[in-house]
Amino acid sequence: MLLLEMGMKSLYNIKRQCSIVRPHIGVVTNVGEAHVGSLGNLDIVVKAKQEIIDGMRPRGTLFLNADDARSRKLNTRNFIGKIRTFGIKNPAYIRGRNVHYTSRGMKFEAKINGKIYPFFIPTFGIHNVYNALAAIGVSLSMGVPIKAIQTGLARFHAPQMRLQLIRGQASRLLINDAWNANPTAMAAGLHVLKNIAGSRPTIAVLGDMLELGRLTYSSHQRIGRLIARLNIDHLITIGKNARIIAQSAIQSGFDRSRVTVCHSREEVLYHLSYAPRNALIYFKASRKLHLEKIVKRFKA
């Protein structure tokens, strides 16, 4: 078995990869904003993701997200094979339900062929439940027993800088989610911050989201509005674009005194040194900002 991620930054990237390795099974987890800046707009992102469907082997199996609006724009009329869906909100072949945060990860059930099965993944976020549902579907299509899938998911290890929990100085807890950023991923991470905080004060350290093209301003505005809605205790931004997050949060009613706009990693470190002793601190930005260097300085 060979499992590949079909990387995409422009049109025909996936097409070329599929011409070399034609997949028997294809998964489109969602059609999001990643690389929209280099592609031009979200409709072209849909076209780029379409290439995996068009490049699959005949009589293969395709998995699509039933809850993702842009995935519904994908054209499957000419696809020769099985189409399976996964989701939580809408009816799907593999449907998640009773999704809960626990102290160690996400607990949920999956309804498959009318039967209910319990699952646990040792990482956080509804978005990761969607990923798990896709993984369940792929595994079942390959004949893997449910019990083995349950065991495998329970032993999952998240990659570094992907919602990575790290003990910080002075009883602080750090969430290193600094590998890369787009608005959907940043919003998902902020929901995780709020859901696992408990009584801990929450601090979001957010940097520029790059490669968004014409969506740059609106995407950063959207995150600012979410900060205000989630009522995060303190917002720290770094970078020119991230200032839009701060402005949007304040315009949405977020207290200006709870916003700190920084211009360098050293400035962020200085302000974080005054963070409450038991704070939960979330780090997210595009790769170019290297926020993990701040995390490294703050580790216990």
UniProtKB/TrEMBL annotation:
Gene3D superfamilies: Mur ligase, C-terminal domain, Mur-like, catalytic domain. Keywords: ATP-binding, Ligase, Nucleotide-binding. The keyword Ubl conjugation does not apply. It comes from the Bacteria. Residues 161-287 form the Mur ligase C-terminal domain. Residues 3-138 form the Mur ligase central domain. InterPro entries: Mur-like_cat_sf (IPR036565), Mur_ligase_C (IPR004101), Mur_ligase_C_dom_sf (IPR036615), Mur_ligase_cen (IPR013221), MurCDEF_CellWall_CoF430Synth (IPR051046). GO terms for molecular function: acid-amino acid ligase activity; ATP binding. Signal peptide: none annotated. This is UDP-N-acetylmuramoyl-tripeptide--D-alanyl-D-alanine ligase.
